[in-house]
Structures are given as C-alpha cells and as structure tokens.
Design goal:
Helix content: 25-40%
Structural class: alpha+beta
Order of helices and strands: EEEEEHHEH
Number of strands: 6
Distance between the termini: 14 Å
CATH class: Alpha Beta
Number of helices: 3
Radius of gyration: 13 Å
Largest sheet: 4 strands, antiparallel
CATH superfamily: CO dehydrogenase flavoprotein, C-terminal domain
Strand order of the largest sheet: 1-2-3-4
CATH topology: Enolase-like, domain 1
Mean pLDDT: 88
Number of domains: 1
Length: about 110
C-alpha cells in the first residue's frame, strides 16, 4: 500500500507512507524535500526486532538531512546499526524501502 500526500506547508515536500513485507512487516513513513532530495522526517514501524529498542529513535533522527540516494542511506544505516541485533529486515532491504518511498512519489 502506498499513500502519497504533498505537504501543504511546503510545495517542495512530499510525504509517502509505504508498507513492505520482508521477513517481517515494515512500514516507512517518509517526508522528503523534492528539491534537495533529502529526508525531512522518517518513521519506521512494524513487527521487526531491534535491540536496543530505543535505537530506532536515534536512527530516525540521524537519517534527517540524509540524501535519498541508495549508497548514502545504506552507509548511514550501516553506521547506526553497528553493534545492534535486528531481525525482520536487512540493511539492504531497509535502505531499499526508504528509496522506494521516494520513487513511489515520482509516479
């Protein structure tokens, strides 16, 4: 399921919420700047496992400002998830999901 809504406050912003099924269900709610191609806000939810649990808040805040390019998102996730235990997604699948949210908005 994909829902795409342009942010009324900023014509350059786009908001996309998309669900993905990997080993577990994952939902990415992404707001990005279409001009600078950067993440403005992101929320990652689902039935995956991440330890320590509070790391998801750090991941979401640290992704803000990141260019929506596969390699940049993947490098940031590799750094942020270093030393964490996670199940239900891989770094590749999560970075792909984030990029696919942007691509869903361009169709």
């Amino acid at each position: 399921m994909v829902s795409s809504i342009n942010n009324q406050n900023n014509a350059n912003s786009a908001s996309v919420k998309r669900y993905f099924k990997f080993e577990k269900m994952l939902c990415v709610d992404l707001v990005f700047d279409k001009t600078t191609n950067t993440i403005q806000s992101i929320k990652i939810t689902g039935d995956f496992f991440l330890h320590p649990e509070e790391k998801i808040d750090l991941i979401e805040s640290e992704l803000v400002g990141t260019k929506l390019e596969k390699n940049q998102v993947k490098k940031k996730l590799e750094s942020l998830l270093s030393g964490c235990e996670f199940y239900g997604f891989s770094i590749d699948s999560l970075s792909d999901a984030i990029i696919k949210c942007k691509e869903a908005n361009s169709h």
